[in-house]
UniProtKB/TrEMBL annotation, chain A:
The lineage of its organism: Bacteria, Pseudomonadati, Pseudomonadota, Alphaproteobacteria, Hyphomicrobiales. Its EC number is 4.7.1.1. One of its GO terms (biological process) is organic phosphonate catabolic process. Pfam families: PhnJ. It catalyses: alpha-D-ribose 1-methylphosphonate 5-phosphate + AH2 + S-adenosyl-L-methionine = alpha-D-ribose 1,2-cyclic phosphate 5-phosphate + methane + 5'-deoxyadenosine + L-methionine + A + H(+). Keywords: 4Fe-4S, Iron, Iron-sulfur, Lyase, Metal-binding, S-adenosyl-L-methionine. This is Alpha-D-ribose 1-methylphosphonate 5-phosphate C-P lyase. Belongs to the PhnJ family. GO terms for molecular function: 4 iron, 4 sulfur cluster binding; alpha-D-ribose 1-methylphosphonate 5-phosphate C-P-lyase activity; metal ion binding. Catalyzes the breakage of the C-P bond in alpha-D-ribose 1-methylphosphonate 5-phosphate (PRPn) forming alpha-D-ribose.
UniProtKB/TrEMBL annotation, chain B:
One of its GO terms (molecular function) is ATP hydrolysis activity. Keywords: ATP-binding, Nucleotide-binding. Belongs to the ABC transporter superfamily. PROSITE patterns: ABC_TRANSPORTER_1, ABC_TRANSPORTER_2. This is Putative phosphonate transport system ATP-binding protein. InterPro entries: AAA+_ATPase, ABC_transporter-like_ATP-bd, ABC_transporter-like_CS, P-loop_NTPase, PhnK. GO terms for biological process: organic phosphonate catabolic process. Residues 10-255 form the ABC transporter domain. The keyword Transcription regulation does not apply. Transmembrane segments: none annotated. It comes from Maritalea mobilis.
UniProtKB/TrEMBL annotation, chain C:
This is Alpha-D-ribose 1-methylphosphonate 5-triphosphate synthase subunit PhnI. The lineage of its organism: Bacteria, Pseudomonadati, Pseudomonadota, Alphaproteobacteria, Hyphomicrobiales. It comes from the Bacteria. GO terms for biological process: organic phosphonate metabolic process. Pfam families: PhnI. It comes from Maritalea mobilis.
Amino acid sequence: MSLDQLTNEAPAYNFAYLDEQTKRMIRRAILKGIAVPGYQVPFAAREMPMPYGWGTGGVQVTASVLGESDILKVIDQGADDTTNAVSIRNFFAKTANVDLTTHTSEATVIQTRHRIPEEELQEHQTLVYQVPIPEPLRFLEPRETETRKMHALSEYGLIHVKLYEDIATHGHIATTYAYPVMVEGRYVMDPSPTPKFDNPKMHKSKALQLFGAGREKRIYALPPHTDVVSLDFEDHPFTIQEWPDTKCAMCGAEGVYFDEVILDDAGNNMFVCSDSDYCETRQSEGHLGPLNADYKERMQ
Amino acid sequence: MSLDQDLPLLSVKNLSHFYGQHLGCKNVNFDLYPGEVLAIVGESGSGKTTLLNCLSTQIIPTDGAVFYRNRKGQSDNLYEMSEAQQRILLRTDWGFVRQHPRDGLRMNVSAGANVGERLMALGDRHYGKIRDTALDWLEKVEIQADRIDDAPRTFSGGMQQRLQIARNLVTNPRLVFMDEPTGGLDVSVQARLLDLIRRLVSELGLSIIIVTHDLAVARLLSDRIMVMKDGKVIEQGLTDQVLDDPHQAYTQLLVSSILHVGS
Amino acid sequence: MYVAVKGGEKAIKNAHTLFAAKRRGNENVPGLRLDQITEQLSFAVDRVMGEGSLYDPELAAMAIRQAQGDLIEAIFLIRAYRTTLPRFGYAEPIETGKMAIERRISATFKDLPGGQVLGPTFDYSHRLINFDFDAEAAPETPPSSDEDIDLNAEVPRVSDILGKSGMIEPDHQFDEGHETGDLTRTPIDFPTDRDVRLQNLARGDEGFLLALGYSTQRGYARSHPFAGEIRFGEVEVEFFAEELGFAVPIGTMEVTECQMINQFKGSAKAPPAFTRGYGLVFGQAERKAMSMALVDRSLRWKELGEEFSAPAQDQEFVLSHSDNIQATGFVEHLKLPHYVDFQAELDLIRTMRKEFDAQQNENGDEPKMEAAQ
Ligand SMILES: Nc1ncnc2c1ncn2[C@@H]1O[C@H](COP(=O)(O)OP(=O)(O)O)[C@@H](O)[C@H]1O
Ligand SMILES: [Mg+2]
Ligand SMILES: [Zn+2]
């Protein structure tokens, strides 16, 4: 260390905000995560200029994997236009100057909170999840020292105790999001608070899936084509949410994850795709739902 | 198989444990045979719990070895096993019934889940079958079937202990450790629990190491008895022999004090 | 007719404009200058430096102004800035024994080498709002210091004085080869040693530590504390320069140090002696330094062979929840949209209610809703 260095001016912000040393540290954690799918790798998360719990883990992972030729998409609740998605996208627009898109198929890196896009992801894509609580056992056992041991020894009986209790009390498993999964038959993993509807999309996905938890300082990963099995009982198998007889009011899609929109205070509601890009793409292709303005026009 | 019956299940060699400088137990040696019930008696502070915790690998002793013969007939030193192997033994081959039910039960989940936990830990994935097994065991320990979905905190002390026993026995363990299982119970509840334990032991052919300061409990349940004082075993032998003809002055004192209270 | 909610972008921009206007307030009131904050709100500046983990009063003042006086927000600004700064290395440990004392009190000895120096303090003031307070008025000239107290002389620490007679445990020693941790570079690995614990507490939330320290006084892991010494003043910071081969001073900083003296019965391994809890905070922050010392001491239960019974002893609990930037982020993240998970729960509750009603019908009971009509 030299005195010269000490008196130098601090440099301007680096590409994608984080300095290269920090990125290397995070990439090492990511590589380790990829090598041991589902295992939570501790990493020295930095303080970011947005609050903990608002995607700092995902932002750090994205910043570390982003290159100048990448095309970035950011979604929150499935939509590109939700406030926090906008805020994170702006952050990268300002600090990384990469191309941005809202189209799932165009993106090379997609940062998400709470959803996996409806459109199937491909080999060249990386999905980065923002994770609030990475530990799937946390609400059964608050102690890190204990949960670490449980993972090390594959002692996962407790998770099934929770599922058992659900069935005993409610008649079925009552976990609807952050639904625990078994990765490659080895580690139980929290898929982040995505609805269980999205769990099957994780299984053998062609895309690389990376998970970043900033406040809890953990990174984990699912390399492409990884086995991801939702935990269940043989006689109470895992099922996903269904909306029978429901169509997207805008694009007419069925079998997607829906947002419920309240129309008035008389109990009237409608359902629209939670994935805004999926919905808009369908509309532009001419699929119209019953409440779409163009639909009415067409009917006239 | 019959050969196995003649070999000890557990072989304890020169076991000592110190808490810092403070003696917990010292130079303990004994063999436990399959189907045998061993009682460890002695006054409070004599090292019974320390010994039991060492045997069950909850404490790694300062010195000595304990060999455990597994289902394949192979005998291994417990303290040379990995923690993973130790923990697997604890939830499959062994049971541990604690003095305080809250230390041995999950108080915030139902009785059924308490009994089913070990099964699920071992990979059982059929809810209906797990529940049936739990019901079976509740019946065996005389807990009504309609209490299966109730939390243990709504149970009486005696029921909680019986639930603890069911939770431990559901995986058909070969060896069960019990630390003062009748400790905090009134006399009539105690009697019922002891009866139950006796019945299960004979039905299942369990080996048991039970810690108690109550010689009456030892007499009722155990084949053999070990008397501890100041961390050391001062006398051991067949229960009837030791209690009817104690050699050590201290044992004589213990026995006579019981007789006194009894008469 | 439904139009998809668009315009998150615009909404954010507008919110920020509104916020800037609110920050400025009435434009007829002169804007706050940084020197007003550093000179007249020094406790706020000190807190922001301490919990922001960055010693720079002017920067702290900037953050306080920008955050409109929300100190946790100001701390957040400092932290986010701090993390982008290049790191040259670690300073040499500061020598609080060589502190230029501004204030130094001991509750354990009436008189002691170096004397009691009350210094600038709220203590013993009557908490009466001064309605005639004149912000512009020049204060009385402070008295020059006591003749027999030389503030420039080195003032030995109470712990060093007691240490000579072996009455108190020596300074904490680590095993040979122990490398001091750095929680900004390595995530905490539980259970963790005292070096990392102290780092965590030093940047921990004052309110959180205050409440925990208070709880130990009320019997939740009581440690019989005495305020052995609290000192506040300026210390020199040195940095080891490789090309010179020795440490050079790079500046000074003000710190508050608190040494709590606690009772300890002794164990099989150690003779009875007083033990210590330690607190060290940037600036003048006595409440924080004292709370930190209380909590530090209670976290040492295992090492001292004490019974575990209370939250203040639980290192996973204390260290995982002490950081107010982490805490505020996660609490406030509940403001973010949770439509997706909420929809999932809504769907489940609807299903369960349907099942419940079906069950009731089967049992011949009227469903509740209808019965009410
Ligand atoms: N965790 C511990 N730390 C230090 N000493 C202990 C600990 N547990 C027990 N001891 C001491 O070891 C001795 C044996 O205790 P224990 O095994 O609990 O006896 P018992 O179960 O027969 O009452 C006692 O002197 C007790 O004070
Ligand atoms: Mg005991
Ligand atoms: Zn749609």
